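Hello forum,

I keep getting stuck at the same step: I have a sequence, I want structure tokens, and every attempt I make locally crashes halfway through. Rather than fight my setup again tonight, could one of you with a working pipeline run this one for me? It's a single chain of 293 residues.
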Amino acid sequence: MRLGYSINSAVPATRSVDSHTNCLLERVRTATDAGFEYVQAGDHHAVSDHAYLQNVPTLARLTAVTDHVAPLFLLPLHHPLHLAERCGTLATFADRFELWCALGYNSEAFRALDVPLEERVPRFVETLGIVQSLLTEGFVSVDGEYYSLDDVSISPHAAPERVCIGASAEPAVRRAGRLGDAWVALPTETTDEIDSKREWFESEGGTEVIARRDALVLEDGERARNVAADLLQSGYRGWDVEAEYPLVGDAETVAADLEALTEAGVSEVVVRPMSTDHAVETLRQCGVARDLL
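Reply #2:
Ran it on my machine without issues. Output:
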């Protein structure tokens, strides 16, 4: 079982941006020491109610303490040339680089960037193909539905180690099997749902399944459950207070959850700590849990 660390790029209202970035560096060091394979960062735009750290510059800074980065891009919101150039630059700072991508759903971001939401699927497919060509080929010519390039080249090149596609609905999971190396399941997918949807992914040629999981894991499992319950009751991510998909408890309990995910065909789990106050211990204890498998 491989572990990845999904950073929280949103800066809590109770913290300064400087304080948050310093905490991120500490957490990435902790995750690396605990045996996490890589650091992953998401992609949001037109965020108005809090500060948000964009993925490429943030991961570039974090390569000071990790050698494996995985930025996720909402592909319909990016021009493929600009995205490929940023990927090439980021990859020069890391020994290992992955390209993660998804459709996106926030209508406000699509409006702000003047991209029709109803075009997101064909834009996703076209953008992914162009980006992969730009990152691996000398000169690229494309006459697409949305973008046209005539003998365009970028440098530095950076063939991603793999392409990981986030998806949940059947057409999207099947698309991930056709176009990607790995399917990234939503953090709200139950183990049974992942096991069932995996058939769609594998029927299209996909092999690797990645589960996203929010987590609160402490040496004191009862305390972890109490803190997680308080967070859920206060509206954490809008989830039900009885939500079963977060990893909550002590290392031994969470090891059993990881084992269940393994049995459902999951090869790795991307962990996002639920609490900033307990993030460091959660990362350490998730590493312990993985070692118990």
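Residues 2-291 form a domain with the TIM Barrel fold (CATH 3.20.20.30). If your local run keeps crashing, start a new thread with the error log.
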